[in-house]
Amino acid sequence: MKSTSSYHPQAPYVLGVDVGGTKLATVLATRTGQILHKVRLPTEADKGPQFGVARLISMLNRNMAETGVTPDEVIGIGVACGSPMDTARGIILGPPNLQSWNPVPIVARLEAEFGLYAQLENDANAGALAEWLFGAGKGMHNVVYMTMGTGIGGGLILDGRLYRGANGNAGEVGHMRVVLQGGPLCGCGKRGCLEAFCSGPSIARRTRKALRQSPNSAILERAGHVDQVTAEHLFAAARQGDALALHLVDETARYMGVGLANIIQVLNPEVIVLGTIATEQGGFFLDRVRRVVRAESWPQISEVVQILPSPLGEQVGDYGAISVILQNVAREADSDRPL
Ligand SMILES: [Zn+2]
Known about the structure:
The chain is built from 12 helices and 12 strands. By secondary structure, the chain is α/β, with parallel strands linked by helices. It folds into 2 domains: 13-122 and 315-333, Nucleotidyltransferase, domain 5 (2-Layer Sandwich), CATH 3.30.420.40; 136-311, ATPase, nucleotide binding domain (Nucleotidyltransferase, domain 5). It is globular, with a radius of gyration of 21 Å. Bound molecules: zinc ion. Residues 175, 186, 188, 190, 193, 195 line the site of zinc ion (ZN).
């Protein structure tokens, strides 16, 4: 391991830290992923990173004190947070919802405090690790994980390990282009990204635009006013058979399906795990996506891939944080697997 702090690969417990813009969570779990103790407190981002890091340290101390666990019984501390970050040096670099945390050398702070090895990973990669070790990708070697919330994030497990790419930006599946030119402006500054069509806010924006041309829809009855329309209103109206809503859901599934077909055509994974909107909408949405994927990719590739909702749901943050450490344990256990 790169750190001089103690890494205890045989220890029975692991600590996890999930740093978010509105909440902080720390968990203590067994090395097999049973979560024994959790502390959750608001981030209070306006009080700055000094306050936040001190709060995290006290939360981790509570995890151990209230379970009677000592640091020498802990493998290490996994930390998940939004990008941008420097994972090699363990530094948080002001993610969009936590801009004052720039820079925060979280790994150095935790290692100095607890004398334990710590490792930082972006939350989408942590989610992929969680689904691989504990969720829909358990026991598989090639897992694609995608969130479908405020943005479209992703992480890749390839040949039994997290794939980071040349400088840690692999798996940014939300920013593949799904139109040849033009398209709506994405949060990343480019046009026509998958995220600009299929994130929650993008679905809502496309729906509002359609409603301004065809206001006679059950979507509007549910939302009250066109400015209030969300992706949830769209899916609810589609489920009751509203024609415009069904058209927009089909269109969303079309963009997602083409995106997924491109991914599987390159990576040939065993499973794609979809979180947030896809988990909430289940088969109503996923069956449409599956049909597009089957039509747009080689049968030899589409017949082996499962497209599944995330079974971890809102717990993906807890499992993601501990998986940042437990991926090392899993890889060490798997190291005699023939290539
Ligand atoms: Zn983009």
